[in-house]
Amino acid sequence: MAFVFPAPPQASLAVQGTDERFPVRRIFCVGRNYEAHAREMGNDPDREPPFFFTKPSDAACDTPLTIPYPPLTEDLHHEIELVIAIGKGGANIAARDVPDHIWGASVGIDLTRRDLQAEAKETRRPWDWGKAFDLSAPIAAIKPIADVPSLTNGRIWLAVNGVVRQDADIADLIWSVSDHIATLSQSITLAPGDIVMTGTPAGVAAIVEGDVITGGVEGIAELEVAIGPRA
């Protein structure tokens, strides 16, 4: 096969304990999957079917790293999330079978240009400009599922400059990992390399140049991201 110009490199993420890489195909994000976060964003936390938005595969980036403050925003926010890496594809996956499709897990940050997202909501336009920008999905090295202690409980937290802002438990997910991945597979055939970011707890807030963000999911992974000068 001949391309008209060199194909871009395969997006990938580090794997804990090895030099191998996890190839990233697509990134799906679950919206409003913690009740307290839904409330802080002014939404009804009733258990409606989960909804999803996407980021480009090359938004994924290894941690630790420094990310330039992104363009077009004055209100960049952090959202810490449990991350699921899919290793076996499928459509219409039953919730009970989802664990068989998971390759591993990690922790990531759904960086959000909140002002652009708010503008999109007001005008009933897609969220892409607020969510799907360069380096908007920093993710720690993925832990193989055999080494993951739990996907149903464990502390999830984020701190900025050492001050904790988000602190919850993945047991607080409105839709469990199995439930929302099963729902996603009803609409889109999942494939190896897909990443699912499972939603953020309460405490999202603005970050600025010079901030250092740390966070993690208990027993799975921790990360560190610094915010550099504006791009």
From TrEMBL:
It comes from the Bacteria. Signal peptide: none annotated. It holds the Pfam family FAA_hydrolase. Keywords: Hydrolase, Metal-binding, Pyruvate. Residues 27-225 form the Fumarylacetoacetase-like C-terminal domain. GO terms for molecular function: acetylpyruvate hydrolase activity; metal ion binding. PANTHER family: ACYLPYRUVASE, FLUTATHIONE S-TRANSFERASE. This is Fumarylpyruvate hydrolase. It comes from Sulfitobacter guttiformis. The lineage of its organism: Bacteria, Pseudomonadati, Pseudomonadota, Alphaproteobacteria, Rhodobacterales.
